[in-house]
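My main concern about presentation is that the manuscript never shows what a single data entry looks like. Each protein is reduced to its one-letter sequence and a matching series of backbone shape codes. For the editor and my fellow referees, an illustration may be useful. For illustration, here is how one protein appears when written out as sequence plus structure tokens:
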Amino acid sequence: MDTLLSVLLGIGLSAACGFRIFVPFLVVGIAARTGHVQLGASFAWMGTTTALVVLGIATVLEIAAYYVPWLDHLLDVLATPSAVVAGVIMTASVVTGLDPMMRWTLALIAGGGIAGTVQAVTVGARKVSLVTTGGLANPVVATAELGGSIVLAVLAIVVPLLAFAVIAWLLFFGARHLLRLLRRAGKAQA
């Protein structure tokens, strides 16, 4: 059962990486420092004071950058592959009780896959915002993404099964809603 919970924890945290890359790392670092998360031996650095300071600074810079109109689009280009890598690292760091080959395979497929999928949905939401409002609603999208990352990271640590259910719900209905909006925007431009 502990292995299943650590897998669900990894998937939840990886999904949070799809919203914001550094927020889940900071949350996990704090949770590891306070004893709420058990990290794999090679990932214990996340709970060190130096890592927490660096992650805190990186988190603040990432959050602020998404509120700068032209910079948010540049970050989307960089964040997509970075989110996949972050998702892989996040899953590998918290999954315990599996041999290394299985852990890294799971991290690559589940962690990287879910982070990339969530990131793709956020890029789609930003695109819809750009097309429908000329980018004026991008700060609202940025705030929603930040909130999603924080809530999902904390929820994954506190109740991993609920976090997994929220992710499934968000992906299903979020992708469906985005596709509808993109179709409407395409018809309006035609």
About this structure: The mean pLDDT is 89. The two ends are 53 Å apart (CA to CA).
